[in-house]
Amino acid sequence: MKMYVAETEKSVKNIVVDDMILTTDMPTSAGSRMLDGYMSLFEAQAVTKLKEAGYTVYAKANTGEFNLDLLGETSYYGAVEADGKLTTAAAQAVKTGETMAAVTLEVNGSGARAAALSGLVYVKPTYGTVSRFGTIPAVCSGETVSVTAADAATAKEVLWAIKGHDDKDGTSLPQEKCVADEVKEIKKVAIAKSLAAGEDAAKLEAVKAKLTAQGVEVVEIDAGELLLAKPAWNILMSAELCNNVSKYDGVKYGYRTPNYTDLDQLYTNSRTEAFGYLTKSTVLFGSETLSEANYYKVYDKAQRIRRVISEYLMKTFGEFDAVLGLVSSKSEYTLAQAQENKYIAYDESLYIAPAMITGIPVVVTGGVQLMGAPLTEAALLALAETL
Amino acid sequence: MKYETVIGLEVHVELATKSKIFCSCSAEFGAEQNDHVCPACSGMPGMLPIVNKRVVDLGMTAGMMLNCDINRVTTFDKKSYYYPDLPNAYQTTQWFSPICVNGRVDIETSKGPKSIRIKQIHMEEDAGKLVHDDWTDTTLVDFNRTSVPLIEIVSQPDISSAEEAIAYLERLRDLLRFAKVSDCRWEQGSMRCDVNLSIRPEGSDVLGVRTEMKNMNSLSAITRAIKYEIARHTRALETGCEELVQETRRWDDNEGKSYAMRNKETAGDYRYFPDPNIMPVVIDDEWLDRIEKSLPELPEVKRARYIDEMGLSEYDADILASSRALCDVFEDALAVCGNAKETANWIITECMQVLNKKKMTADMLAISGTSLGQLIKLVMEDKVSRPNAKRILAAMFENDIPDVEAYAKQSGFIVSNDTSFIENIVKEVIAADPKSVADFKGGKEKALMALFGKCMKQLKGNANPQVLREILIAEINKI
Amino acid sequence: MDIKTLSRLQKLNQLNLTETEEKELMDFFAKAEKDAEILATVDTENVERMVYVMPMTNIIREDIAKKLYTRDQLQEQAPEAMDGYWQVPRTVE
Q1: Apex CA C29: angle with CA C27 and CA C31, to 5°?
Q2: Is residue B291 domain-resident?
């Protein structure tokens, strides 16, 4: 397991945060050589809130570079494998009982996938209910601080400790919305067929059986609109990432190449030597979506598609209390598979993209995801507790 | 062939706020390098931008002063490029929905009045400052100005000469300083101007090749740069000695030349997109009304009112109306003391003298007009002598004096009306200086002045000069 | 995507790809663009773009200046600094 452990005494309420969440007693590197050993002058609001609630933030879990990848395989510090299978350091820390929960920044689905493949419970709350202050910005319009735990009750406990309005985050919702925990009974659930194809289809069947046994009506819907999310999210994600990592240029802090004589070389060589291929390719793709020739055709189009998907989901949540789907196409991945297909994270973003692009809450349990309308994470977690 | 010049100006003005636009660092000018800096404005990850409300207030104020329409929903966008003075490698600005559009500035030129249309005003953050170090042959980076709030005022290409450009810039400066939007100091970089210029055959409606010139930091430099660029364009069109290309050029005022800037290959590809971290600013009627009510009278309206209604001379009115600070002190003081001429004198003569001594400009006059009014009233009522009033005024420049009469009493500056007290002092002085008494009686008028001065000194200036003079003569005559 | 545009993109973003990486990325562009064709089939002419997933307005603060960090703290991790300045190779305008 790749973790940086702080010199803090462990308590019974130990929490691991991932490498995208700033702490002042441990370095925060975003899994990148660019920020190797970087010490922040301030800590994330989520960390402050955890401490205030009596938790000990005792270690920093390794991530893929800017959390863009499948399961942490792009980290400068190396991938994490368990029993020959790829997983994330955060999920592994929870799975081994090393920590009661992991608090991570969900950017492109690695947190949800790791939880699903490890049989853990994961919750990505509604966008704006946990402050992003003190998280390394990658995709500001969608990334959300999320929680992974062994069971739904623990996930809820830790999530409610970090939720809350924060004046330091301009997208932070009002306090009453952040902590809304009204639990509406879930009576009707849809399975999105567009997100149901994959090796883990049996897990979906198992959850369906449990729901039906509880008297919940489960209906299959096509939900073809959700297939728009992957390409649209890829555009928005890449564009924002391009902009957010442009600040890493070898001037103020972080990696500076030894190979330069002029400013241009300083910039280019620092970035070229310190960023991995996935970050580079995402930056270049994102840059192109924002070029003068492409802006309206590509980027602005994706922003409109985002509304189309959001409206489709709102309409669906008018009829169903939750939507079920898979989290990945396979039930396990090896490091070799992830390294062989350079675009595996993009391919697998199909499942998580609808929730990332619209900011709706997601709960992963039993290897599948439950999506709900904004601010219904309490109800989704309550349902997960019964599964 | 005769050519005509087409000029559009982009004017950057730093707003008069206490803090920066997206973080709480001080926006004050003149700090030590990198002293007004935090993780947000030095490009460290994890802080999020929160818009300074005062920036929006001042953006609206500027728009109203320049007859603009205010966009009721205004948003912020990111503009990306690499340069060491831009720590995030993006500048947050307004590209899609600027705060103000469609304005107008009226100017006077030797050819008569003219209107220059304003295309838009947008809010944005300033960049840092680069200092070149010759010893190490490196560039040093100072982020104090990074994220200081700016507005950029973009004119339509309605300007056709250097003279018009200067008239426009001077008028803009007057209006913005009057509305306290900015101190507009060219020398401190709080007002800057880029010139977009092209020329075309007279009467043609096709625009010529346009060049943008940067780095002019005074009105005279702008005049020189425009004249140089017109000559360069004309020569290029007439002789074909140089091909004009659309480009950004840097003005070198020492050499009196403009140079094409490097890095053309990727210039202009700024990849603007809306910043998802900054929610739209929605301006409702109440907000609009509040700003509208706070707008100052225009300087020329004030000037006319000072002459017509208050009976000031044109000279005095010109001086007062040249600075909002002078007008504010004048009007507040007048409201207390009720004597316009006297108030104008105190400001133009006495206050200006103190400012000059302190090497400060009129705009920096920061004393309370109400206190000054109280002081003038005390002088007019003969309660405080003029020399002592000047001492009190000097004290006002150091500290706020809300109750001037109490301060005067406490400092022993109240004129004595007790004639027997004055008589006793006069008797003492006469007794001690029989020579001056004799001289005066012998016809030397100057001797009286010496005695008068001694008495006044004993009285610490707190006597009505007329009363003292009468008592003095009366006492001498008794001898 | 062609190699000339890709080379310009690298310059614009201060990155250099190896030839192999360039080829891989060209493939990705082709793949992603093909996937994005589905977006063009949706009529979005009357759909407003969605920049904020949980929209709010007027998240603004009062104009109050605070000093929270010192220059030394900020420059502690600077690759190069001199006399309180960050330091870079000489810029040419």
Answers
A1: 70
A2: no
For residue A46, the chain B residue with the least C-alpha distance is: B46
Which of chain B's residues have a Cβ under 8 Å away from the Cβ of A246? 80, 82, 88-90
Asked which of B350, B379, B410 is the last residue of a domain, the reply is B410
Per the listing, tokens 């190699």 go with: C3
Report the gap between the CA of A288 and the closest CA in chain B (Å).
9
Residue A297 and residue A306: Cα distance in Å, rounded? 14
Domain annotation covers residue B292 = no
Question: Could you tell me the residue ranges of all domains in chain A?
Answer: 3-228+304-385
Query: Is A369:A351 a contact under the CB 8 Å cutoff?
Result: yes
Same domain? For B95 and B60 the reply is yes
- What is the ipTM, given to two decimal places? 0.97
Q: What is the DSSP string of A126-155?
A: -TTSB--TTB--S-TTT-EEEEEESSHHHH
Residues B251 and B376 both lie in one domain: no
Indicate yes or no: CB of A168 within 8 angstroms of CB of B47. yes
Residue B158 maps to a domain? yes
How far, in Å, CA of A215 to CA of C2, rounded? 56
Contacts of B277 in chain A (CB under 8 A): 140, 170-171
Strand partners, B151: B13, B123
Does residue B350 sit in the same domain as residue B443?
no
Backbone Cα Rg of chain B: 30
Tell me which chain A residues have a C-beta less than 8 angstroms from the C-beta of B139.
263
Q: Are residues B272 and B191 in the same domain?
A: yes
- Per CATH, the number for A3-228+304-385 is 3.90.1300.10
Contacts of B253 in chain C (CB under 8 A): none
Assess whether B180 and B308 both reside in one domain.
no
Question: Looking at chain C, which runs of residues are DSSP E strands?
Answer: 60-61, 81-82, 85-89
Out of A141, A252, A285, the one facing C51 most closely (by C-beta) is A141
Nearest chain C CA: its distance from A267 CA (Å)? 6
Could you tell me which chain A residue has the CA closest to the CA of C72?
A41
**Domain identity same for B147 and B193:** yes
Whether residues B402 and B279 share a domain: the answer is no
Q: Which of A103, A129, A106 is nearest to A44 (CA)?
A: A103
The residue from B364, B384, B410 where one domain ends is B410
Indicate which of B28, B86, B279, B283 best probes the interface with C, i.e. most C CBs within 10 Å of its own CB. B279
In this complex, the chains that touch A, judged by 3 or more CB pairs closer than 8 A, are B, C
Q: Which of A176, A283, A284 to mutate to test the interface with C (most CBs of C within 10 A)?
A: A284
Range of the domain at B435: 419-478
Q: Which of B82, B87, B272 sits opposite A267 (nearest CB)?
A: B82
Per-residue pLDDT of chain B (479 residues; tens, 9 = 90+): 889 999 999 999 999 999 999 999 999 999 999 999 999 999 999 999 999 999 999 999 999 999 999 999 999 999 999 999 999 999 999 999 999 999 999 999 999 999 999 999 999 999 999 999 999 999 999 999 999 999 999 999 999 999 999 999 999 999 999 999 999 999 899 999 999 999 999 988 888 999 999 878 899 999 999 999 999 999 998 898 888 988 899 999 999 999 888 665 566 789 999 999 999 999 999 999 999 999 999 999 999 999 999 999 999 999 999 999 999 999 999 999 999 999 999 999 999 999 999 999 888 898 999 999 999 999 999 889 888 899 999 999 999 999 999 999 888 888 877 788 888 888 888 888 888 888 888 888 888 888 889 988 888 888 888 888 888 888 888 87
d(CA B27, CA B23): 10
Q: How many separate domains does chain B show?
A: 3
CB contact under 8 A, C39 and A260: no
- Residue B26 counted as domain residue: yes
- Length of chain A, please? 387
Indicate whether B34 and B139 sit together in one domain: yes
CATH of the domain at B458: 1.10.10.410
Report how far residue B326's alpha carbon sits from residue B351's, in angstroms, rounded to the nearest whole number.
Answer: 9
